[in-house]
Amino acid sequence: MCEQFVARAAEPFRIADLWPFTERLERYGLAGFGWGATWVRADGRLCSHRDLRAFRDDTDGGARVGREETTSVLVHLRRPSRLSTLQLPDAQPFDDPAGRFSFSHNGDLRDWRERRARYRKQGRIHGRADTEVGERWLEDAWREDQPPAAQLRALHETFGGQANLAVLTPDGTPT
């Protein structure tokens, strides 16, 4: 199962300040099959980085992301349930093409197969992970007038399974 966490502060911080914790989480957790992060930029946009290497091995990416300052970041360390998903299109967090949120999860979404086929026909599926199916569903279901927690609850009710879901929005709100 993947490891993920959100860090948020009232004042901007360097993301690299979180790297000692991230290194320990990867080392002592179950991760090491890639990593990704999404953070809020000073201009209010979400920015992401994803890599197939373990966090400890992506020294260039870690250094580049670490130089960024933010008030909110979502970090995802991969340990996929299915090793057939070890490709960049399956790396998390997934970004909403409209920039409304970034999404990640750990665990398993149970009822993803039917929707995967539908999204594949639409040309919207690029990888093999159930998370991408959940992301596409969330893109379609996202409503600005509903809190992200309600939307994640609806996603979990739709797909079932055992999963921890996370969303980061451009205003820095983690859910």
Could you walk me through the main structural features you see in this protein, from its secondary elements to its overall organization?
- It is a single chain.
- The protein contains 5 helices and 7 strands.
- It has helices at 19-28, 59-66, 113-121, 130-141, 148-159, and strands spanning 3-14, 35-40, 46-51, 69-77, 94-95, 102-109, 161-168.
- The mean pLDDT is 89.
- A 4-stranded antiparallel beta sheet has the order 1-4-2-3. Strands 5-6-7 form a 3-stranded antiparallel beta sheet.
- It is α+β, with helices and mostly antiparallel strands and 175 residues long.
What is the overall pLDDT average?
Answer: 89
Total beta-strand segments:
7
Relative strand content: 25-35%
* Helix/strand class: alpha+beta
Report low-confidence residues grouped into runs of 5 or more: none
Radius of gyration: 15 Å
Cα distance, first to last residue?
A: 19 Å
Largest sheet: 4 strands, antiparallel
Strand numbers in spatial order across the main sheet: 1-4-2-3
Helix amount, in percent? 25-40%
**H/E series, N to C?**
EHEEHEEEHHHE
- Output the number of helix runs: 5
Tell me the overall shape: globular
